[in-house]
Specification:
mainly beta, Glucose Permease (Domain IIA), two-stranded antiparallel sheet, globular, zinc, hydrolase, metalloprotease
């Protein structure tokens, strides 16, 4: 996993908008977030209601979307190594613990990221 924490919502869990397309990880305040793969940051910055968002092109048609950062440390176009720090979680504000959203997109379609992450560790 790109951040230490516990799974608050798993891929496929029921939500108001249908099955979850990613994993939500409840993380400690100030936790460091790392890149889950070697690749290139194809987007880094604020995006709609996601807040600070990072998209990493991991190759072979795989893109990882990470959202919920307090601070991003990877710029668009940066080459990333697996385990390289890419940002920091906030303090969670009045809602409590901060959450990192992780979505794996394989050839443009959401896929369960857990088997993919496990194969990389």
């Amino acid at each position: 996993m790109p951040v230490a924490g516990r799974i608050a919502r798993d891929f496929g869990d029921a939500t108001d908008a249908g099955p979850a397309r990613g994993v939500t990880i409840s993380a400690p305040p100030g936790a460091r977030v790392v890149s889950p793969c070697a690749g290139r940051a194809v987007f880094s910055g604020p995006f709609r209601s996601y807040g600070q968002l990072l998209i990493v092109d991991c190759g072979e048609g795989n893109h990882v979307v990470l959202a919920g950062f307090d601070r991003l440390d990877a710029a668009t176009g940066a080459r990333l190594l697996p385990g390289e720090p890419v940002g920091v979680m906030g303090d969670g504000g009045p809602a409590g613990r901060p959450s990192l959203y992780l979505e794996l997109r394989r050839n443009g379609h959401p896929a369960d990221p857990r088997p993919w992450l496990a194969a990389r560790s």
